[in-house]
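INFO worker-7 received task bundle
INFO bundle size: 2
INFO processing item 0
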Amino acid sequence: MPESMRIPSLAEREWFYAHIFDPKESKDFLKIYPSPVYAIDIGNESGIYLPTFSKYLNKLVYISKYDDIKEKLAKYAPEDVYYSRNIVKDPKICATCEKRSTDCPGCTNLARQELAFDIDSENIKCPLCKKDKKKSIYSFCIHQLRDSKQWAIRLCTYLVEEKKYSDVRIVYSGRGYHLHVLDEDAYTLPMKDRKKMADSLKDKGYPIDTWVTSGHIDLIRLPGSLHGLVNRIVKEIKKEKIEEFNPLDSKEVIPQYPSSITH
């Protein structure tokens, strides 16, 4: 990954959620959810985590109350934070379900789901450095990061002009971009139509994760959270500012820590 990006320390993650994270930043995205479900990864990729929570390694910890989210994140100091795009009939059924995500599209408990698109830099071919970019999630370069933004802009234009959606948000995700479609009718789009759209976009060359769009993966990064592998804040970037946005030097997405915890 680009030299200016790095894995933040545990102390930096703790500081971020105690002093920088603002849960209100994601509230607008979650306004349609009666009770948002959050999921946190304590450190599965980096191997950096609080020993107290080692029992959660290779698992996800679920949090079901918005009012508790800042306190809980400061407590766990997670590597990554997500929220579920699913709106369900009975949250209690999901709490005990052992088949999360992959079986959601066919579940009778699923009422609606937010439509979203995921563009990760490492999934874009780079003709300049010609490296095998699929070895790991760390393998993307500055060229792929730049190109992922252009694909996000192009996809946003398609969703607005061709699909006629009026509320499409672009979120810088850390390694790429997420597009959230918050139009009410998009939440009820049938799963078969989501898959058809995802496959069509893939055929047109869009580097999207079809499992996200088709609904097989319900989790997506929480805006305002910290991407614990690249030390960048997951942030909505307004359409009028997206062209000039550069995650390598933007103060919007680079967290500022006190020198006492970075040295």
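INFO item 0 finished
INFO processing item 1
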Amino acid sequence: MSKYVDFISNNHFEDCVRHVLSAYGKAKELETSLDDAIKEGNIFKSDLFSNVVDPFKMRFDTIRTSIKDCIEGEILRQLNKSVEQRLGEFHQKLLGGVKGWVDLGIGDSKKVDLKNEEETIFIEMKNKHNTCNSSSLEQVRDNLEAITGDYHNAVAYWAYIIPTKSNKSGNDVWVKKKRNKIPAIRRIWGENVYELVTGDGSNLKRIHSALPKVINTVLAKNNTEAIPDIIERINKKLKPYYETIESALYKEVFVDHD
């Protein structure tokens, strides 16, 4: 079998894709949770309603659409949240498989996500430029400053793949308000991230182009059930509750239960 791309192994690429696709397993978890809740006689105990659903928004939504569509929208919202989290880890894991680089893993104990083996380049990786809120971005800055303090010859990067609309790619000193300007602390985004790690910014496009083939291969190997089929089953199981679900939802949110 030919290689998907020439800078990482096929197995590693498939593992990174599998990591993202596993988030779609949330749909099956929602179905199982709903089955348990129906047996208990209260559908609102299911994970589908784990976050408080706004009964007023549902009332407005059902003027324009249907309960079925509202339920499908909530399922997709929860799936998207899980997938977006995994996408934030996808590029970290993938670039960690490039020769000469180390993926430092996921967890509170690590300061950043990637480093080269010579410990001269450290990267905190985000998927989008606006992933971090202000407090999280302050923590990223603290971590990068700590690293450049510990490794005096190192350059530390805040990296993100999806840029702003106006700046597609870039690499510059990270100037942050109320912080000292430190040349060794930089921000890098878009194709420049892949240029830094792989030596060729075009590899970002190559990953994107190869994804359909890799995704289909992983799905075939795992015999993964189609998400629309699971969503359709969930809606069928909820159909007997459609007529009363809006009023029952109001009681669930606002009325105390003994």
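INFO item 1 finished
INFO post-check item 1: Residues 100-221 form a domain with the type ii restriction endonuclease, domain 2 fold (CATH 3.40.1560).
INFO post-check item 1: DSSP finds nine helices and six strands in the chain.
INFO worker-7 idle
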